[in-house]
């Protein structure tokens, strides 16, 4: 039960000799990570998070989740970037794109993510969806001053205090923030909000398995212990003393770097289930912020097939050969639906009558990989045994380890993101924030 790396569609693109050539550097990168001796090592606590998390806080997360489920029809999660993408990715991947509709039927809170943009219309829409129903807030910010979530918190804090009064509202607000300092910490202490910690040694994009992601995930009815168990398995595999080519995350890092050095500058992660969409959004942040610096890095994009085969599939097949694909596939069927009988055969589908939809999807996957590789587009295949918490926890750690190794292979710090500050500085100046007007 772990991620499997398959090179079925890499023949002709990468030779075994090239893998052997990069193997020592990849081994050194892994050893450097495990020794905490490389650049950015102050932000490497994610490496041991699955086995070294705060058990008391974990128990409080479960208790808080039960409280929210018992007294709220809606949970509003306020955060941006890594403060929301991981949780949303896990919830939609394990549930579906329709998780809120399903939650309402199952008696679980609907979960809405705000503070992800500066759109007033989006906030208005969420307020309309809440209506007069009971709700709680999980505000997630290390500082409490990031513009987009800070605006959203102002709005929803006022809304919840108006509905319940300040004292009762405080029992419905859960703050995930810095343990020692910051504007949100001060507000949480002043008002008596229950607090969870944004870890110091873990960057936002690596934080999904901390309190940052776990509270909303638990509220969605997902078993966060099994999620951590899956990540623990991947952590143990990554650290195990064995041939590094037996480690799927290392293989992934090596192969994508070989392709990158051959001029494939864009990686498109693809899946054949719509509920993969936000996992891919999380993956894009992880890859882009980790590798995109010093004028280096693979540009990450995503697609949902076969939907996007009827649009950008044309470019992938016949366009400029600048990209490679990474396919994520679940081997176990996640639905038992079959192609049904019809009154007639006007749609000419009787040749697949009673075939499982899984077979149709797998045929599309194989056919597409064959078509794209024949056109000069390399394909990496990643497989999970099942669509469950354990496998997803394993996959999350897999991607985190792979991109960290990949960053070291490219001689960059995979744990900082200096470029994201540039737009913020310009925006503060344009809006007239004190200290930024010159």
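-> sequence recovered:
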């Amino acid at each position: 039960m772990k991620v499997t790396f398959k090179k079925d569609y890499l023949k002709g693109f990468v030779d075994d000799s090239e893998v052997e050539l990069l193997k020592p550097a990849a081994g050194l990168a892994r050893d450097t990570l495990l020794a905490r001796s490389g650049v950015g090592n102050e932000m490497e606590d994610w490496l041991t998070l699955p086995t070294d998390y705060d058990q008391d806080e974990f128990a409080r997360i479960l208790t808080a989740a039960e409280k929210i489920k018992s007294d709220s029809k809606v949970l509003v999660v306020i955060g941006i970037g890594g403060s929301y993408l991981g949780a949303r990715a896990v919830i939609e991947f394990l549930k579906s794109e329709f998780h809120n509709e399903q939650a309402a039927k199952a008696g679980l809170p609907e979960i809405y993510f705000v503070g992800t943009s500066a759109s007033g219309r989006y906030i208005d829409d969420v307020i309309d969806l809440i209506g007069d129903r009971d709700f709680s807030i999980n505000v997630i910010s290390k500082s409490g001053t990031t513009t987009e979530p800070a605006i959203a918190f102002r709005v929803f804090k006022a809304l919840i205090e108006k509905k319940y009064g300040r004292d009762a509202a405080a029992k419905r607000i859960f703050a995930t923030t810095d343990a020692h300092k910051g504007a949100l910490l001060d507000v949480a202490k002043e008002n008596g909000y229950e607090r969870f910690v944004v870890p110091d040694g873990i960057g936002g994009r690596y934080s999904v398995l901390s309190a940052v992601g776990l509270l909303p995930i638990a509220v969605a009815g997902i078993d966060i212990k099994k999620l951590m168990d899956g990540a623990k398995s991947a952590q143990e595999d990554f650290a195990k003393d064995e041939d590094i080519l037996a480690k799927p995350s290392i293989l992934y890092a090596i192969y994508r770097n070989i392709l990158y050095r051959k001029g494939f500058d864009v990686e498109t992660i693809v899946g054949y289930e719509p509920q993969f969409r936000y996992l891919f959004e999380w993956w894009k942040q992880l890859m882009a912020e980790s590798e995109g610096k010093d004028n280096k890095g693979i540009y990450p994009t995503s697609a949902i097939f076969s939907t996007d085969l009827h649009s950008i599939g044309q470019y992938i097949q016949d366009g400029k050969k600048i990209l490679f694909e990474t396919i994520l596939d679940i081997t176990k069927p996640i639905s038992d639906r079959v192609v049904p009988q019809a009154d007639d055969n006007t749609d000419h589908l009787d040749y697949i009558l009673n075939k499982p939809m899984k077979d149709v999807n797998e045929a599309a996957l194989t056919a597409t990989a064959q078509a794209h590789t024949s056109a000069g587009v390399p394909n990496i295949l990643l497989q999970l045994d099942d669509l469950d918490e354990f496998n997803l926890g394993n996959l999350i750690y897999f991607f985190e380890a792979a991109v960290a190794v990949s960053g070291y292979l490219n001689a960059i710090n995979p744990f900082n993101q200096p470029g994201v500050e540039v737009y913020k500085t310009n925006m503060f100046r344009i809006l007239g924030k004190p200290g930024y007007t010159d």
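The chain has a mean pLDDT of 96.
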